[in-house]
């Protein structure tokens, strides 16, 4: 089972001012630089490149932007682009519900795995949500006391599921997705997989399901300051609870001599595959040795100060801080180019900070929580459906704090904070896996064959 926590983060960001986006102590992009790049025409939005279709009552977007979103991906220098992304508007057929997700593949078939999960996970989660809502309806119908007050309770719970129900939906759909992947994808997925960070927005609720080391960060506002609020934990093998589970399953966790800061999962009797995350879809060679597909699930109630959420693969977070990311998005002259600006800035940072490393694939989804951009009054023209966020948002005090400099977090339920959250800091520039297991090795293949048979 995954860990379910009510987790909120807040920062103390004294440098950035809302009206100008200026910087006084951090080497990040200022509004003037962004505008100078836009003048070159490189970031003009290509509306003809939008890719959308309708599925299960929702508008599915694989490329492009809308009034509430911006998305962009770019291939790195390691081969085929293994990142994928999607946005579903009118998710589950409801007008106020949106699903967003980014998926980072790895291994020989990582690109196929990430695309397969991108196309199928939203359907499985949608089915789980509908089933949960139907069960709630049956429960309240059976218990109806024919009083007006109880009818109000029924209506409210039909629209907004309990947190336990949301957790159950995410856990169920992620587990089914992994089983379906084992049945449908080429057996090379035995050594391939992908991460996922997903967000469902329903009215003033955000529910986040995270699997692996991609990340979701919220931009909120405190007066004229923009504050990054990290919504997920980077699930790395050296997090104590993750390490404990892996070792209990006879997997091994250690960093190679050439990468002393990158901890990986290894098989019990072979130095492979060296996976740099502790949870993922696929990678069935490690599923008997501590790797799981159960997501961490987090919840946040949207406030009037909350501006947007950025979902991105680790190609972004390896070179840009949370503050840098939200500032670049917030200072984009138009929403439609926000994701592309962020990816281009990350690529530039890769070349500057790590000139000897190959630039990683990057994928970004920006989900805006109101109709007006943070710093710009211009709006995208490409949406088929104009959205509006809830008119009855309530202010909500954060249950925890986040220190911008040390990246420590307080408030996660049931963990030892000083150690559990240390994986939030630092950069992991290494490949997701070091080498593939020898598939002829009977000891590991026999134990994991049940995944490939779909049992």
From TrEMBL:
Q: Which residues form the PPM-type phosphatase domain?
A: 68-369
Q: What SMART domains does the database record attribute to this sequence?
A: PP2Cc
- Residue ranges of the region described as Disordered: 379-408
InterPro entries reported for this sequence: PP2C (IPR015655), PPM-type-like_dom_sf (IPR036457), PPM-type_phosphatase-like_dom (IPR001932)
The residues forming the signal peptide are: 1-15
- The entry's keywords: Signal
GO molecular function annotations of the record: protein serine/threonine phosphatase activity
Which residue ranges have biased composition labelled Basic residues? 382-399
Task: State the superkingdom.
Answer: Eukaryota
**Family matches, as Pfam families:** PP2C
Q: Know the name of this protein?
A: PPM-type phosphatase domain-containing protein
Q: Which organism is it from?
A: Clitoria ternatea
Q: What is the lineage of its organism?
A: Eukaryota, Viridiplantae, Streptophyta, Embryophyta, Tracheophyta
């Amino acid at each position: 089972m995954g860990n379910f926590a009510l987790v909120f983060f807040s920062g103390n960001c004294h440098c950035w001012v809302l009206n100008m986006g200026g910087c006084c102590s951090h080497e990040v992009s200022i509004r003037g630089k962004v505008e100078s790049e836009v003048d070159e025409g490189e970031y003009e939005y290509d509306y003809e490149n939008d890719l959308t279709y309708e599925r299960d009552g929702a508008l599915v977007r694989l490329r492009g932007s809308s009034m509430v979103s911006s998305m962009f991906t770019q291939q790195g220098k390691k081969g085929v682009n293994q990142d994928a992304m999607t946005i579903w508007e009118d998710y589950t057929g409801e007008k106020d519900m949106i699903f967003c997700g980014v998926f980072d593949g790895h291994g020989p078939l990582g690109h196929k795995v990430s695309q397969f999960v991108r196309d199928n996970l939203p359907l499985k989660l949608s089915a789980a949500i509908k089933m949960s809502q139907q069960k709630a309806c049956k429960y309240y119908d059976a218990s109806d006391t024919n009083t007006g007050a109880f009818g109000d309770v029924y209506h409210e719970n039909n629209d907004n599921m309990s947190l336990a129900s949301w957790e159950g939906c995410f856990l169920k759909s992620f587990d089914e997705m992994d089983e379906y992947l084992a049945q449908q994808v080429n057996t090379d997925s035995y050594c391939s997989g992908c991460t996922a960070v997903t967000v469902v927005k329903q009215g003033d609720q955000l529910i986040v399901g995270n699997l692996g080391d991609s990340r979701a960060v919220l931009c909120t506002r405190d007066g004229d300051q923009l504050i990054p609020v990290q919504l997920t934990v980077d699930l790395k093998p050296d997090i104590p609870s993750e390490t404990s589970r892996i070792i209990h399953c006879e997997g091994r966790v250690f960093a190679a001599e050439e990468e002393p800061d990158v901890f990986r999962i290894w098989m019990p009797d072979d130095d492979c595959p060296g996976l740099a995350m502790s949870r993922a879809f696929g990678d069935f060679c490690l599923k008997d040795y501590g790797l799981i597909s159960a997501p961490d699930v987090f919840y946040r109630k949207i406030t009037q100060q909350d501006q947007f959420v950025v979902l991105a693969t680790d190609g972004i977070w390896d070179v840009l801080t949370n503050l840098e990311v939200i500032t670049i998005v917030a200072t984009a002259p138009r929403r439609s180019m926000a994701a592309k600006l962020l990816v281009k800035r990350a690529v530039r940072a890769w070349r500057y900070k790590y000139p000897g490393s190959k630039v990683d694939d990057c994928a970004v989804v920006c989900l805006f929580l109101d109709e007006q951009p943070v710093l710009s009054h211009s709006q995208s023209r490409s949406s088929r459906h104009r959205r509006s966020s809830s008119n009855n948002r309530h202010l909500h005090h954060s249950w925890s704090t986040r220190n911008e400099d040390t990246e420590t977090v307080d408030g996660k339920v049931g963990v030892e904070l000083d150690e559990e959250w240390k994986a939030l800091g630092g950069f992991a520039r290494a490949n997701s896996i070091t080498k593939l297991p020898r598939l002829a090795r009977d000891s590991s293949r026999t134990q994991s064959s049940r995944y490939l048979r779909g049992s």
